[in-house]
């Protein structure tokens, strides 16, 4: 089972929007050095919606090759087309990932039965560990606990990234889905509480800019050191909040540019962080010791 701090990695780009492969290599090495426990490649933070299929698979391949087994690599392979998600998951398996992360089908707004069949269809055809991803704030569809509990019975569906920030929901999933099914936070501000409730880690945006701190936060929470974990989380709260001052990954890519980790490239329809929002994020970065 994959545990700890799992960075939802950005895809660095040049100012013209092309993928910056050199920066990607530097950022992967940065995470290996800073103690990140796992890398999530081309999730929604990695701009999966605007990378074409070739680029999507190239990013996964480059990361798998560079990591070379030192930490797990999880590939984002979700889509609102079941057959597209199947193809991406098959390709990711062939590239050697340790698991795949599949967001709920967005825009279509399927029923609970439709989502159950979507995930089961893929899991039954691709023998790679698969993690569900529920983020209703972005997809306009909510994978309800009773549906997750049904899916937890499918052999290679091994966990869920629950990004609602609802700790009571997380507790229900932890209690009802069995010890072999991992519940991960997808909400940085509430990740500590989810892990303390029995979750296995955090798939994190904040870890892009504060990987060592997020790795320590998860380590403390997994060890049950609640007071220390909460204290560290409180110190990071300005960053957790301001990294969502505009749509993710707009703020985190701007923050990484300020840290010298990459250029400021981002793909339309997303645009660079507005001048009005920059002072807020800059202040949070300084409070958290990033600049």
From TrEMBL:
Amino-acid positions noted as binding pyruvate in the UniProt annotation, renumbered to this chain: 45, 203
The UniProt record lists the keyword Cytoplasm: yes
Catalytic activity, EC: 4.3.3.7
UniProt keyword Cytoplasm present: yes
SUPFAM superfamilies hit by this protein: Aldolase (SSF51569)
Active site: 133 (proton donor/acceptor), 161 (schiff-base intermediate with substrate)
Catalytic activities: L-aspartate 4-semialdehyde + pyruvate = (2S,4S)-4-hydroxy-2,3,4,5-tetrahydrodipicolinate + H2O + H(+)
Pathway note: Amino-acid biosynthesis; L-lysine biosynthesis via DAP pathway; (S)-tetrahydrodipicolinate from L-aspartate: step 3/4
Any matching Pfam family: DHDPS
A molecular-function term among this protein's GO annotations: 4-hydroxy-tetrahydrodipicolinate synthase activity
Site for Part of a proton relay during catalysis, residues: 44, 107
Domain of life: Bacteria
Location(s) in or outside the cell: Cytoplasm
Function in brief: Catalyzes the condensation of (S)-aspartate-beta-semialdehyde [(S)-ASA] and pyruvate to 4-hydroxy-tetrahydrodipicolinate (HTPA).
Self-association state and partner proteins as the record states: Homotetramer; dimer of dimers.
Name assigned to this protein: 4-hydroxy-tetrahydrodipicolinate synthase
């Amino acid at each position: 089972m994959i545990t700890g701090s799992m960075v939802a990695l950005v895809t660095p780009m040049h100012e013209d929007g092309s993928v910056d492969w050199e920066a990607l290599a530097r950022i992967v090495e940065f995470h290996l050095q800073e103690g990140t426990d796992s890398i999530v490649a081309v999730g929604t933070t990695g701009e999966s919606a605007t990378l074409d299929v070739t680029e999507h698979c190239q990013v996964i391949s480059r990361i798998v090759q560079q990591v070379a087994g030192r930490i797990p690599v999880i590939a984002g392979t979700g889509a609102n087309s079941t057959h597209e998600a199947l193809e991406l998951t098959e390709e990711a398996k062939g590239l050697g990932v340790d698991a795949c992360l599949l967001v709920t089908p967005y825009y279509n707004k399927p029923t609970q039965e439709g989502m159950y069949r979507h995930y089961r269809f893929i899991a039954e055809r691709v023998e790679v560990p698969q993690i569900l991803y529920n983020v209703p704030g972005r997809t306009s569809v909510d994978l309800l606990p009773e549906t997750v509990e049904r899916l937890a019975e499918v052999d290679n569906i091994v966990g869920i990234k629950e990004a609602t920030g609802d700790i009571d929901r997380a507790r229900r999933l932890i209690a009802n889905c069995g010890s072999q099914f991992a519940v991960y936070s997808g909400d940085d501000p509430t990740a500590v509480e989810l892990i303390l409730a029995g979750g296995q880690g955090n798939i994190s945006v904040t870890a892009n800019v504060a990987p060592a701190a997020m790795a320590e936060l998860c380590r403390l929470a997994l060890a049950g050191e609640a007071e220390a974990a909460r204290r560290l989380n409180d110190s990071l709260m300005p960053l957790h909040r301001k990294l969502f001052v505009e749509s993710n990954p707009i703020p985190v890519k701007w923050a990484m540019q300020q840290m010298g980790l990459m250029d400021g490239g981002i793909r339309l329809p997303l645009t660079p962080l507005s001048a009005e929002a920059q002072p807020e994020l800059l202040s949070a970065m300084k409070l958290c010791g990033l600049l």
